[in-house]
Amino acid sequence: MTLTSLEFTRPPADLLIEPQIRAALREDLGRAGDITSELTIPASQTAEARLMARKPGSICGLIAAKIVFRLVDPSLIFTVAAPDGSRVEPGALIASVSGPARAILTAERVALNFTGHLSGVATATAALVDAVKGTRARIVCTRKTLPHLRILQKYAVRCGGGFNHRFGLDDAVLIKDNHIAAAGGIAPVLERVRAGLGHMAKIEIEVDTLAQLEEALSLGADIILLDNMSPEDLKRAVGLAKGRAVLEASGNVTLATVRAIAETGVDYISSGAITHSAVNLDIGLDL
Where in the chain is the domain with CATH 3.90.1170.20? Predict the structure, then answer.
C-alpha cells in the first residue's frame, strides 16, 4: 500500500531533515571526499543505477535518499518506483538514479544507510500492525529513537501503518514512575501538573498496578499507560476504566505477544523496539 499522504512532499520537509543528511555526508566524505571514485571513474562518465529490494518489507526513506543524491550532485535524476509506504518483494525496483557515475557512487552508501534503516523501522512496525488487525488497538512508537533521527524514524513508523506518540519532552505531559516517586505519589503529581498546565494539553500517567490505575482514574487522568502488565491484568484494567480514560499498554511488546495484548481491549500499544532495534532491510544499488 502506498501512503502518499504521508510522504514529505511539502517544501518545509527538506528543511526539517536536510541537516541530518548533510551531517551523514560530511561524516562519509571526510577531509578529501571520495578518492576511490575520483581515481577510478572519468569525470565525464555517466551511468544509471537501480535501488533494488533484496528482501520483502515496507519501504521508507526515499525522501532522504533523494536529498542525498541532490546534495552530492544536483544534476543527478532520482526517480521513485515504489514510494515510501509501499510493500515490496525481493527483486522489486524501488528507485533509479542517473547522471554522473562518480556522484552516484559517492552518494550510494549514505542513501542506502537511510533507506535500509528506515525501511527496517517501517517493516517492523507493519509486522505489529498486521498482528493486531481486527482489534481496536493502534501501534505507536516512543521516544526510544536513535539520536538525530527521530523525525525520520517516526515518519517510518507511519509508513509502516503505525502512529506517533509524542515527538519530544515539550509536546505532551507523560508522568512516569520516577516523576510520581519524586512528587510523593499520584495525587500530588497530578495536582502539580494541573496547576501549571495549559488547558489545551492532556495528561498521561504511567501506572504499574491496578490499585494505581484506580487512583489515577478517580483523579481524572486523560490517558493511562499500563506498564508491563500481564494480559490478564490488562483485561481487568479495561474493565475498571470503562472508557473513562484512554489506555496504553507498554512493555514486553513483541510479535509473539502483541496479539494477546491487543485482544485485552486497550486503545494503544507502544513499542520502543520498532525504532531502537529495527533490523535493516536489505536494499542494494546496482550500477
Answer: 4-128+279-286
- Beta carbons of 7 and 83 less than 8 angstroms apart: yes
- What are the beta bridge partners of residue 112? none
Q: Is 235 a catalytic residue?
A: no
pLDDT exceeds 80 at position 227: yes
Known catalytic membership, residue 27: no
Contacts of 91 (CB under 8 A, 6+ apart): 52, 53, 54
Return the C-alpha cell found at 126.
507493519
Fold assignment, 4-128+279-286 = Aldehyde Oxidoreductase; domain 3 (3.90.1170)
Catalytic, 154? Answer no
Which position among 70, 144, 166, 235 bears the catalytic label? 144
Q: Where in the chain is the domain with CATH 3.20.20.70?
A: 131-276
* 201-219 per-position pLDDT tens digit: 899 999 999 999 999 999 9
Q: How confident is the model at residue 169 (pLDDT cuts 50, 70, 90)?
A: very high
Would residue 176 show up in a list of annotated catalytic residues for this protein?
yes
Which of 138, 176, 192, 236 is the catalytic position?
A: 176
Q: Which CATH class is domain 131-276?
A: alpha beta
Structure confidence by residue, pLDDT tens digits, 92-126: 999 999 999 999 999 999 999 999 999 999 999 99
Is 14 marked active-site?
no
Question: 5-19: buried (b, 16+ CB within 10 Å) or exposed (e) per residue?
Answer: ebbbeeeeeeeebee
Q: Which of the residues 7, 108, 227, 267 is marked catalytic?
A: 227
Q: Is the pTM of this model over 0.85?
A: yes
* Catalytic site residue from 109, 138, 143, 244: 109
